[in-house]
């Protein structure tokens, strides 16, 4: 069974009220969600808290999800909102988040081929819009249409952001010595 | 001091598992259903008692009746808010909740009508019976809708299971 079918089946079982399916659904998507949130906010501790908030929102909103096969864009839309709320709070108390971005930049560079870890390390220096489109498209493997749905912009805008993000990331990684 | 492996996946933490289990708890949902039904039905029965009093009640007694009705309605409102925002019912929960609502509204309608027949006028009996019938019919409609939604999801679940086999 493909991951999409498995995910759709778990969503339907959750909507039916089969409690054990919630744990399975969270088990299937938690890593992807956590990576996205972690890459967006920088701090792993904040990512833990935000990911938990997202799962609570998922449990509360799942009965209203009409298309179980659209779970991934729906999940990341909720996550994006949680990240935006966190950012708003961080702006009000800037001293609490001052070190967060440094966590990402601290990830060391390695030799050889670019790994997911290295790309994630470079993401910290990208502007938020470019960072999130890169995470959704490359690290979470969402389609252009799904990215557009999550971000609330037309697919053309997603393409241009992706182009800009790749170029900027390439420059960042080149500066760090990843050019081959 | 930097933490190792910031970007690595961590699996689902036990704390999240516990939080999720509490969030989807069937017991807490049924508690809200019961509280809402008890509050609404108690308010209805107190209203019947008040309306069928043969003589005008003292002001203090009227205030107590009004207070009890307000408390009952407030509990019903809190339960409705919780069940729509905090603890939404999943398809199988909706069927259980609607069955409970059907039984409780029918019993309340019958008890209210009997009370009105014993204490009040024909108009009071007819009004109470009509209100009881309408509330029971609404509960019946909710049950039919909940069953239909559950059937639809069960069908979809079977299709997805079959498709993945």
Automatic annotation (TrEMBL), chain A:
<keyword id="KW-0238">DNA-binding</keyword>
<dbReference type="InterPro" id="IPR013325">
    <property type="entry name" value="RNA_pol_sigma_r2"/>
</dbReference>
<dbReference type="Pfam" id="PF08281">
    <property type="entry name" value="Sigma70_r4_2"/>
</dbReference>
<dbReference type="GO" id="GO:0003677">
    <property type="term" value="F:DNA binding"/>
</dbReference>
<comment type="similarity">
    <text>Belongs to the sigma-70 factor family. ECF subfamily.</text>
</comment>
<dbReference type="InterPro" id="IPR007627">
    <property type="entry name" value="RNA_pol_sigma70_r2"/>
</dbReference>
<dbReference type="InterPro" id="IPR013249">
    <property type="entry name" value="RNA_pol_sigma70_r4_t2"/>
</dbReference>
<feature type="domain" description="RNA polymerase sigma factor 70 region 4 type 2">
    <location>
        <begin position="117"/>
        <end position="169"/>
    </location>
</feature>
<keyword id="KW-0731">Sigma factor</keyword>
<protein>
    <submittedName>
        <fullName>RNA polymerase sigma-70 factor, ECF subfamily</fullName>
    </submittedName>
</protein>
<dbReference type="GO" id="GO:0016987">
    <property type="term" value="F:sigma factor activity"/>
</dbReference>
<dbReference type="Pfam" id="PF04542">
    <property type="entry name" value="Sigma70_r2"/>
</dbReference>
<dbReference type="InterPro" id="IPR036388">
    <property type="entry name" value="WH-like_DNA-bd_sf"/>
</dbReference>
<dbReference type="InterPro" id="IPR014284">
    <property type="entry name" value="RNA_pol_sigma-70_dom"/>
</dbReference>
<dbReference type="InterPro" id="IPR039425">
    <property type="entry name" value="RNA_pol_sigma-70-like"/>
</dbReference>
<keyword id="KW-0804">Transcription</keyword>
<dbReference type="GO" id="GO:0006352">
    <property type="term" value="P:DNA-templated transcription initiation"/>
</dbReference>
<feature type="domain" description="RNA polymerase sigma-70 region 2">
    <location>
        <begin position="29"/>
        <end position="91"/>
    </location>
</feature>
<keyword id="KW-0805">Transcription regulation</keyword>
<dbReference type="InterPro" id="IPR013324">
    <property type="entry name" value="RNA_pol_sigma_r3/r4-like"/>
</dbReference>
Automatic annotation (TrEMBL), chain B:
<protein>
    <recommendedName>
        <fullName>Transmembrane transport protein</fullName>
    </recommendedName>
</protein>
<feature type="transmembrane region" description="Helical">
    <location>
        <begin position="124"/>
        <end position="144"/>
    </location>
</feature>
<keyword id="KW-0472">Membrane</keyword>
<feature type="transmembrane region" description="Helical">
    <location>
        <begin position="96"/>
        <end position="118"/>
    </location>
</feature>
<keyword id="KW-0812">Transmembrane</keyword>
<keyword id="KW-1133">Transmembrane helix</keyword>
<feature type="transmembrane region" description="Helical">
    <location>
        <begin position="32"/>
        <end position="51"/>
    </location>
</feature>
<feature type="transmembrane region" description="Helical">
    <location>
        <begin position="63"/>
        <end position="84"/>
    </location>
</feature>
């Amino acid at each position: 069974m493909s991951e999409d079918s498995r995910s759709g089946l778990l969503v339907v079982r959750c909507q039916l009220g089969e409690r054990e399916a919630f744990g399975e659904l969270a088990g299937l998507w938690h890593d992807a969600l956590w990576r996205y949130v972690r890459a967006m906010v920088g701090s792993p501790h904040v990512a833990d808290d935000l990911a938990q908030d997202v799962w609570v929102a998922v449990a509360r909103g799942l009965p209203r999800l009409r298309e179980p096969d659209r779970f991934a864009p729906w999940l990341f839309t909720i996550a994006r909102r949680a990240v935006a709320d966190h950012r708003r709070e961080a702006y009000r108390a800037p001293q609490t988040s001052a070190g967060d971005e440094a966590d990402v930049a601290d990830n060391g560079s390695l030799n050889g081929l670019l790994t997911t870890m290295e790309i994630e390390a470079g993401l910290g220096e990208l502007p938020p819009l470019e960072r999130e489109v890169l995470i959704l498209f490359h690290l979470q493997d969402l389609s252009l249409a799904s990215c557009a749905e999550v971000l609330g912009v037309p697919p053309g805008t997603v393409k241009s952001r992706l182009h800009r993000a790749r170029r900027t990331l390439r420059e960042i990684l080149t500066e760090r010595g990843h050019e081959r | 001091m930097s933490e190792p492996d910031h970007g690595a996946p961590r699996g689902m933490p036990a704390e999240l598992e516990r939080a999720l289990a509490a969030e989807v708890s069937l017991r807490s949902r049924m508690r809200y259903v019961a509280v809402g039904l008890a509050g609404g039905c108690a308010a209805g029965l107190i209203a019947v008692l008040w309306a069928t009093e043969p003589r005008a009640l003292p002001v203090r007694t009227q205030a107590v009746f009004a207070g009890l009705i307000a408390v009952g309605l407030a509990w019903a409102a809190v339960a409705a808010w919780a069940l729509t925002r905090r603890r939404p019912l999943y398809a199988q929960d909706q069927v259980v909740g609607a069955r409970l609502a059907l039984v409780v509204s029918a019993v309340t309608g019958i008890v209210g009508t009997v009370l009105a027949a014993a204490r009040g006028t024909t108009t009071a009996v007819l009004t109470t019976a009509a209100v009881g019938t309408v509330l029971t019919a609404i509960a019946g409609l909710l049950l039919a809708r909940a069953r239909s939604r559950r059937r639809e999801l069960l069908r979809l679940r079977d299709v997805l299971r079959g498709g993945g086999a």
